Amino acid sequence: MSSPPSLQGWHRLSKGAGGKAGKDFKRATSPQRTGSRRSPAHSRNTSTSSKSSFGKQGGRSPDLTYHGQYLAFYGSPLSNFHVAKSFRGSSAMPYLLNELERLEIMHPARDSIAVQKMEEHHFICGEQFMMACKGFLFELTTIPLFSDSIDIFAQNLRGAASSQIPNPFDDLNQQHEQFTNSVFWQILESTSPQHIKSLGRRTPNFNEEVWTKASKAVVIAASLARAEVNPQLSDIYKSAWNTTDNMPKHYFVEASPVDKVWGVGLGREDRKIRDRKLWKGENRLGHCHDEAMRLYMTKRQPKADFVQEIKELKEKTSEADQEKKVEIEKYGEAAPADVTTNDIAKDDEETSAEDQGTPGDKNHLNRQPTHPAWKEFIDNEDRGKKETTRESSSGH
């Protein structure tokens, strides 16, 4: 069986058959090569103008489309695969840890090396944080990290002969090798969203039920952290929020025709998106962005009560400053104080006499301690003195 003709062969065939010239054929069918593999549409950063919806600096993005109250997206800064300015894990972990504890989901301790590693890392996209959290919740629980070995070593040290104590550095080296070879570590080291996603599927001890419960908090935490450093994402949140009524103007829908878990199973231009009853998927990512937008916008708008409190505090401060100004004008800078120096000295003497006995006598030395531990200590001291006195007397 003969192999299909090469691209040059197709050029010749099309030209001989009266078709387009070879260079036109090549331009129409061949992707532009830039030295790297072309990324999928949902991970590309596009900024071409379109009628669909707003984008960078008030422009329009071809990855966003209005459907009534719904804002459909596929790609754009709303995508977990969108690579922009990296965000530090420390901006996402506080919210995540609080939510995991509220949901009663087991996770490494707040002071663990696993949490420290998550907080120190700079994540290139939401997908990397999401997949790293899979390893954080499921894989790292099987690797006894370094602090555990130190604790075990300290426990063995108590009441054991030195020859029987295992060398903790053997365990540390082994754990370090496990840690750096883990899927969690590989996810942090990768710079390709697609590779990161494939690594996440290999997370050991993965539990679908626990992940379904935890994943919403994971994505919201990442979205909040991303909005802090990515103006494109924060602008979308601001444009979809009604600041007057302090509520959403639009709700987000991930219009992925193939994803029926995080998306709705419909294309971005599909008019069925207008009717939620016609959605074919759960739209988890859209709901996460709804909540992230609410948290992002409301924490930046001071509540009316708080504003009123600030106003009242300023008024009180102004009144106090005015009273002080009148006193200074009347008495000068050395305005009369409410308490004189003699009063303070008298109070000090009374306090000293009350706490330590009257100065000059030794009553304060006879004060009895109240804490049981001190009482026991003093009783032992007195008992020891009596025994010493008795031994001295019997010796004479």
From TrEMBL:
Biased amino acid composition, Low complexity: 43-61
Signal peptide: none
Domain NADAR: 116-288
Compositional bias segments (type: Basic and acidic residues): 315-332, 373-390
Region (Disordered): 1-61, 315-396
Gene3D superfamilies per the UniProt record, alphabetical: YbiA-like
Short name of any one Pfam family annotated for the protein: NADAR
SUPFAM superfamilies from the UniProt entry: YbiA-like
Domain of life: Eukaryota
Name listed for the protein in its UniProt record: NADAR domain-containing protein
Origin species: Cyphellophora attinorum
